Fold this protein.
Amino acid sequence: MAGEKTDIQRAAMLFGAVFALVTILGFIPGITTNYDGLTTFDGVGAEIFGIIGVNILENAVHGLYAIAGFAAAASWAASKSYFIWGGVVYLVLWLYGLFGGSNDDSSANFLGMNSASDWLHFVLGVAMVGIGFLLSRRVTRDRTATA
């Protein structure tokens, strides 16, 4: 049926909404502890829920992921790309954090990350790549079967 969203498109919309929520939460004092650390670009900044290190730059990136998720939901191909390439970016960010990018006092820690954010990036990266391949595979199989 024309105009009906595929599972991967609905998932992109959901991820866009979650990233939008995280972006908003990242700017609310109390939910984000050490709020003055939002403008720290050389070590661990503020922390969402007192756990996950962030700063204003990382919050902005979350906002871009939200916008990209909403935009990607317009098509199956864009949704697939959003998940696969967005997940790859998160996996690269995880590796960056593991190899020194999330040290407490490192000038390389321009995103205000900590160990908790490193592992969240890993989980997001694996989840996004997995969703990109698994949900797009089913549609590809369905399209091949009807051709």
Observations:
- Confidence is low (pLDDT under 50) at residues 142-147.
- The first helix runs from residue 7 to 25.
- The chain has one domain: 7-146.
